[in-house]
Amino acid sequence: MRSLPPPARLDDVSTALRRDGWALMPRDMLLGCLPASPSDADTVHASWSDLPPDTHLRDGGRYRFRRHSCFVLDNARGTLTQTPHRAHWQPVTYNALHGGFERWFEPVLPAVCQHPMWQALLQRLGALLAGIKPVPAWFIEAHQFRVDTAGGIGRPTPEGAHRDGVDFVAVIMLERHGIKGGETRVFEAQGPQGVRFTLSEPWSVLLLDDERVIHESTPIQPLGEHGWRDTLVLTFRQGGFQGP
User: What are the tens digits of pLDDT across the range 200-220?
Assistant: First the structure.
């Protein structure tokens, strides 16, 4: 497994994302640029204990819990607007398992969407990505995920290695509790190079250029009676949301 030294500056994150198609941002850098306190982070993360089951899993699993909401970030004004609730949709070319049909999930709770840390998180990451790819607006989908091991195994990416059909993806690690596995794998979409590592630090961020790399996370298993893996996945797309 490759050792990944943390970047020292925010500019290093942008440089790595441009160069490699992916980059890591450690917790202290993220919280420092929002800004947000550890208590803010705990308040936002508490909502992961209230996620309803994902009823659309086509592998028959009951290991994933989820909420989903959409936002538009005006990059010129820096204003973030939540859209009316809508379905999540991907073409089968990007998600062979769950693509091609509308998936309706319960929305992210209003108290979370309105929390200053949540708002700052979407705005600051959007601004960083607009510095790499200047676009008028980002159409952002936010996915709260809990993958648990109550059934013995949980699959963070049941569709396997994939792209999402967007411009950028941010995978934010919130918690690993009583599990093994869940290794992150990032590979060139058009080449042989790849890296493997495990996201473990709460509120650390993996940024992906979705046009250049594919990604997946390996299944998780419990170390004891029960475990789970909490993440927040944000996708940033120019021009509009994906739809049928």
Answer: 999 999 999 999 999 999 999
